[in-house]
Amino acid sequence: MQLLSYIFILSLLGFAAAQDTSLAEVKRAFNNAHDLKIPGDIAFTFNPKVLLEVTFPETNGRPITLHAGIQLPRNATAGPPIFSVVGEPGRGPFVVATVDPDAPTPQAPTSAQIRHFLGGNFFRKSLVEPQLLTNTTPAVTEFHQPTPPAGSDPHRYVFLLFDQSKAFQTQTLVTPATSIALFNLSQFAHDVGLGQPIGGTFMLVGPDPST
């Protein structure tokens, strides 16, 4: 099992061309995402301190590591994604959240935000790859693959990293049974004391061509 994990990590390291390398570039991408500024749409001040890397394993090919604003075909986003952090945020714990602010369409986001992932107790624990984030408890909301409806423009899927607060560990505002629609990440972060995100990235995903 350790050998398989080591081989997988090496494959992640081998796909580095697309990853974010500059905090300034990530912030610029967030502020210019299809003329719809992500920090305003999700009500955060976005001044990243570290780079959040999000990597999607692929069944037929090498893993895909996002750079902020990349557009991926839906079939490349089955996940669940692997999270890593570049910088010095400490060991953790951290919270990772993923939301879609464009549901059901960017022009009429009446169901937004959709909560595609919410998980805590992420730590930097790997001796082989110290940037890798490993969660030690089940996610509050397991990863939901992007599924923009037919006819929609591409949606933005925003991944944010937070320092975990003590209140997050015991919160009951969001549970595995809570609807993933009409989520307000900034309000949730305020209510459980997460503060502002310390890192993030995003991708664009359009409807499946077959729909």
Automatic annotation (TrEMBL):
Q: Would you indicate the residue range of the signal peptide?
A: 1-18
The family database entries (Gene3D superfamilies) matched by this protein are listed as: PEBP-like (3.90.280.10)
Listed InterPro entries: PEBP (IPR008914), PEBP-like_sf (IPR036610), PEBP_euk (IPR035810)
Presence of the UniProt keyword Signal in the record? yes
Give the record's keywords alphabetically. Answer: Signal
Q: CDD domains under this entry?
A: PEBP_euk
- Specify the superkingdom: Eukaryota
Which PANTHER family does this one have? PHOSPHATIDYLETHANOLAMINE-BINDING PROTEIN, PHOSPHATIDYLETHANOLAMINE-BINDING PROTEIN 4
The identity of this protein, by name, is PEBP-like protein
Q: In which organism is this protein found?
A: Gymnopilus dilepis
